[in-house]
Design a protein that fits this description.
The chain has 317 residues and is mainly alpha-helical. It has 13 helices and no strands. The longest helix has 28 residues, at 274-301. Bound molecules: zinc ion (ZN).
């Protein structure tokens, strides 16, 4: 017997409700499509003349790649979706005891598993995939970019074709932009990622909606790349990319309450408030600036000889 339209509608409602109620913490696509595209594009337009021309000319591709990892969240590619979702965030409150964070991803896992084993209440909050891996994926893509820049320099020196490595560099630069942009969105650095949890003396919203309202709905309706482009300056070389990137994440984390206070005052509703606009363009600019600084630092570091005494690593299998 064919299903009636009413039955079909009811089935659809049940399916949608199930999807929304069971959404994992990582459903949020930081900055939405627009914010990610803007951050990458603005950074690409600020690439200095001392960096390769092909990269400066690739602003369209780099902008397209801003949202790329959000295209890897489709349940149709379940293995990919599951494997990469923790890359978009880190709950810094969960690792306040682990300062500084180890640079080695697997050392980070080991410390978290130790913490999990020593914890009786909500121990699984300390699983790496629940805490989030945002600085690790960022530095790993940074490493890919730097390695590709080194290869580009070597091929140029040898007067060999560079087109293939140029394409790789453009991809890594654009891909890197996604995570750096996520890091500038305060709600990607916190357990307060989508509605306040725990003690709430200021009465911030506990509804699951603030995340998408701020980064996607509000930005798409009210902000353009030109609104923050003039705030992004010439790049500076980072002295210690991992350390500097963690400081950047922590400064983002320090602004979590600002997002909640702005939401509380209706700052992100409709056309929003001047304060919300000012806050948002500063966060977008911070993301673009850090991305540009990382590209620039990777380019400069790629010219350096490998360190004489590399840190010891286990033999590859
Ligand atoms: Zn993301």
């Amino acid at each position: 017997m064919p299903a009636t339209p009413k039955l079909l509608r009811r089935c659809l409602i049940v399916v949608l409700l199930t999807v929304f109620v069971t959404l994992p913490r990582d459903f949020a696509f930081a900055w939405g499509n627009e914010g990610h595209t803007y951050i990458n594009r603005v950074a690409a337009q600020r690439i200095p003349a001392t960096m390769p021309l092909f990269l400066r000319q690739a602003a369209v591709e780099i902008a397209y790649l801003g949202p790329e990892p959000d295209r890897w969240r489709n349940p149709a590619e379940l293995a990919l979706k599951n494997a990469q979702e923790p890359d978009h965030f880190i709950d810094l409150e969960r690792v306040a005891w682990l300062d500084p964070l180890p640079q080695d991803r697997y050392e980070f896992y080991r410390r978290l598993y130790e913490k999990q084993a020593a914890t009786s209440d909500h121990a699984d909050d300390y699983l790496p995939e629940h805490v989030g891996l945002q600085p690790y994926i960022t530095m790993e893509v940074y490493g890919r970019l730097k390695a590709a820049f080194r290869e580009y320099r070597a091929l140029q020196t040898a007067h060999k074709p560079t087109l293939a490595v140029q394409r790789a560099i453009i991809f890594y630069a654009g891909w890197l932009g996604h995570y750096v942009a996520d890091g500038s969105q305060p709600l990607h650095t916190t357990i307060q990622y989508n509605g306040w949890v725990g003690p709430n003396p200021n009465g911030y919203t506990t509804e699951h909606g603030i995340h998408g309202l701020f980064e996607a709905t509000y930005v798409a309706a009210n902000i353009a790349a030109k609104d923050f482009a003039p705030m992004v300056k010439a790049p500076t070389r980072l002295t210690d990319p991992f350390h500097d990137y963690l400081a950047y994440l922590n400064s983002s984390r320090d602004l979590v309450e600002n997002v909640y206070a702005l939401e509380q005052g209706g700052g992100f509703r409709g056309k929003g408030s001047p304060a919300a606009r000012d806050f948002t363009v500063h966060r977008l600019a911070a993301g673009s600036q850090m991305l540009l600084n990382l590209w620039y630092t990777a380019w400069l570091e790629s010219a350096e000889p490998n360190p004489e005494h590399l840190p010891s690593t286990p033999a590859p299998k």
